[in-house]
Amino acid sequence: MSTKTNKPAEEGKIPVLVIFAPTASGKTALTRELFSPQGSHFILNAEIISADSQAVYKGMDIGTAKPDAALCQEIPHHLVDILSPEQQFNVSDFIDAADLACRDIYSRHKLPVICGGTGFYIRSFLYGIAPTPVSDPELREKLKSRIKTEGNDVLYEELKQIDPESAARIHPNDAYRICRALEVYYLSGKTRTEFKIEPELRSQYDFLFLVLEPPRDILYQRIRDRVDIMFADGLDSEVKALIKQGYHKDTPGLKAIGYSEWFDEDGSLLGADKLDEIREAIKHHSCKYAKKQYTYIRGIPGSTVIDFNGTEKDFEKVCGLVKVFADNHLIIP
């Protein structure tokens, strides 16, 4: 009887495969091929840790293009459907949860795989994040009150003057992150950008970092096709069901692309006569978001960028890289 063995304990590092791939790039098909026993390129047992900032929310299935139930049965997934839409989930929460999952998965002789399209989450997991001042409840309430009375735009413009680099990474409607960036500045006198750490990969892990990069024109067309499928699958009904549960424009989960476009400026749900406009807005924002996410993962040392179009040759290339990585760590099926 064979005994499963992980890399020698003295190495002290957990091997983690990290795959950055924007929506509609083929990552679901890839993970199924490599890590599902039903896949023709099956390598070994792995578990997926979702690096998608919106997949954490329950009831938001169609608009976030979550992995389907069949795939989750074939390959266990973490950080999917763990929160209600009204709960906040930030990059620090992601790193804490992903760290726990990596240790757990590896302890069971499986390969942890961080996979998703939120580039900020992936970059932060690879490098870690710098400690910033602990939140001050009184200041936080003052900023939240200002958001209500003055609006997001006023505080966002204030942030742009103080810390334009942070502002560029925050959506103008993301009240939570706008408040937090201002709070850091008013508590410390330093911008959040100034708290950046030196770019050095976290030492407790041994990473294989793959970046899937389909041709942009093909990726954007796939994204547009994906949005059409979402509407055909009942995205409008999903949004209405969330609103019926009491969620609204300012609910953290519903600020995501695919949901925020359904509301007008005062928070009212747009009518059926606006469906085409909503659809086109989602397509536009999704393509723009996919392009932006690549900026977060540029220049990370050791990354392997793969021209990935979902062909047999593409699968074979990724399979070969992962197999060598797993063999080096003595992770076997």
Automatic annotation (TrEMBL):
It catalyses: adenosine(37) in tRNA + dimethylallyl diphosphate = N(6)-dimethylallyladenosine(37) in tRNA + diphosphate. SUPFAM superfamilies: P-loop containing nucleoside triphosphate hydrolases (SSF52540). Its EC number is 2.5.1.75. Substrate binds at T23, A24, S25, G26, K27, T28. Keywords: ATP-binding, Magnesium, Nucleotide-binding, Transferase, tRNA processing. The record marks T118, R140 as: Interaction with substrate tRNA. GO terms for molecular function: ATP binding; tRNA dimethylallyltransferase activity. InterPro entries: Dimethylallyltransferase, IPT, P-loop_NTPase. Residues 52-55 are annotated as: Interaction with substrate tRNA. GO terms for biological process: tRNA modification. It is an enzyme of class 2 (transferase). Its cofactor is Mg(2+). ATP binds at A21, P22, T23, A24, S25, G26, K27, T28. It comes from the Bacteria. Monomer. Catalyzes the transfer of a dimethylallyl group onto the adenine at position 37 in tRNAs that read codons beginning with uridine, leading to the formation of N6-(dimethylallyl)adenosine (i(6)A). Belongs to the IPP transferase family. This is tRNA dimethylallyltransferase. It comes from Treponema bryantii.
